[in-house]
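Milestone M4 deliverable, item 7.
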Amino acid sequence: MQQESKFEYLSGNVERVTYHNQENGFAVLRVKVKGHKDLVSVIGTVPSITPGEDITTKGYWRNDVQYGLGFRAEFIQSIPPTTIEGIEKYLGSGLIKGIGPHFAKKLVAAFNTDIFDVIESTPIKLKQINGIGDKRIDKITKNWQEQKIVREIMVFLQSNGVGTTRATRIYKTYGDQSIALVKENPYRLAKDITGIGFLSADKIAMNLGIEENSIIRARAGIAFTLMEALSDGHVALPINDLLNNSEKLLSINKSILEQALTLELQEGFLTKDQIEKKDFIFLTGYYIYEKNIAAKLHNLQKGKVPWDEFATEKAIQWAEEKQNIKLAINQKNAITKAITNKVSVITGGPGTGKTTILNCIMKILSAKKIKIKLCAPTGRAAKKMSEATGMEAFTIHRLLQFQPSLGDFKYNENNQLDCDLLIVDESSMVDVPLMHSLLKGVNEKTAMLIVGDVDQLPSVGAGQVLKDIIDSQKIELVKLTEIYRQAQNSDIVVNAHLINQGKFPILKPKGDEKDFYFIEAND
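Output delivered:
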């Protein structure tokens, strides 16, 4: 069990760097601390660290399963060492290219604790050491300057309320321009740095003395308002709603917000378009997603299916015999449309036979050696699809092979999926960015079948892709409404349809129910 104490400060000399991740700055250090007999494990984030450096940290003691009792640092500030032993270890660590353990010993012997001043101000003196010439001096001074810049950046960021982890991310993104860029516009951090949002950037801006009514704050606040709308499922907002919401959030005069909106539109960060004769504002990235989804579906459905035509009536009859079932007219119609159209949608509530239809389509096309891939937005939906069809189904992320190191998918417009038919189930849960990524990976020759219940769970992310496709009336659609006999035994199915029809569900007390029951609560 972890035991944590209140925050305290700890200072010491870095004896050993056990682990340091150059990408995110995470480090495990062994530190010599006055008053502690053994070396102390300090765990935290720092952009660069070297044995011999002195550090000051703020944090708490914690018993870690992996590292034992250690000091979990909220921030680590490193300071060049001041003792002869520390300076020699620091210079000999390889941090300053051109100086290794051999030259570190010689330099300290020659210049003692003044060695840092010599490197900084009079590097020509280094020539006194046998083996150090002009080329090595250039390398040493260049590396020394780089380390100095890192320190200055970290001190600046930390003194303006930025924690070590975020400061490391900022430095990794902006390099030696970090101070200049953050001073110029701290709100850019919300756009450029993962893990820093508008509210964090706003605090940094306040520390830097940026006024509440400044135009850069207004511009960033408008973008943040649209980001907040995304989390509520909205891909865009009407102009008046956007301005009113931004005014409430930021307490900025509306005339400044209108000016800020104009600048954001001019520079292409936001996009304006009309929906039903009303002006809406989009984050440009999401606007492009929506346009690309529409264009890709339009282009796909214009083509012919990638298999030879055959008599669907006979094929459906064969599938009925093979599976010992009798299909309704609406179900046969759905199978025919899916087989003869390049893109089609099958929608319907629970118990309307979507899975039966899918199984028949797959039975018919598999017999003709058509290459089919199945996917769904969640692991549970993919597993359910696999169990129902007897064929492997993937989550969309697994199908496209998400690569965390790149933050993108292996399959995209340059490397598309190899299949004749792609079936997407539970498509009501697919949001705009995911559908955009999926369609990039779909070859122009591939046919698509989109299956889902428009009244089911909406997507976690922004947009209502399935509903918009259906409402557009541009894609071949089959809407299933009849509940089949076996599904009528489920009160969940029956009540779902009653609620969709605006009728009150059938409520039974616990004990009398099949799979749906009502428990009365006092409040």
